[in-house]
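Supplementary Text 2. Reproducibility record for the structural model of the 177-residue chain.

All settings were left at their defaults, and a single model was retained for analysis rather than an ensemble. We include the record here because the model underlies the residue-level annotations in Supplementary Table 4.
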Amino acid sequence: MRDPIKTKISEPYPIIEESEIINGFGRGSSELGIPTANIPISSNLNKLDPGIYFGFSKLIPVSKDLETKKRSDGHLVEFNHGANLSGEETCVFPMVMSIGYNPFYNNTEKTAEVHIIHKFQDNFYGAKIKHAVLGYIRPELNYTTKEALIEDINLDIEMALRALESSEYNQYKHKIL
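Retained model, structure tokens:
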């Protein structure tokens, strides 16, 4: 069992930002069954140590034409800019965010991947995402199996949901509306 998350917000949190969802590696949904929204590493996120963080997020559709972009693996990805998001899917949801190098996949560049804790009906590449990073769960780890990685991600989600129920964290939900 992991140590409980601190129930008091302290520096450098909260980190509240808005960014565009970009191409990732396509592993979150297809390999892990845990879809992620990749975002550019801002200077505030880059200052954080590699690890798993938690908070709230909200998707914002962007009025843009449908685009198709090529991922680094050559796979084509449809950027619908969130045009298919339902009203419910633009609400504020809890999230966990991985910031780091994903050693299981041997990444050489620091990335930020947001797992919004909600089941979406369609992709939303190119939409905007507003997020509030409120705290830290654990350091980035390497894994010997994909199953162990998935198990830890699910533990991260449980810990984030428990922490976000507290009034200390829950008060930040309205700051990203």
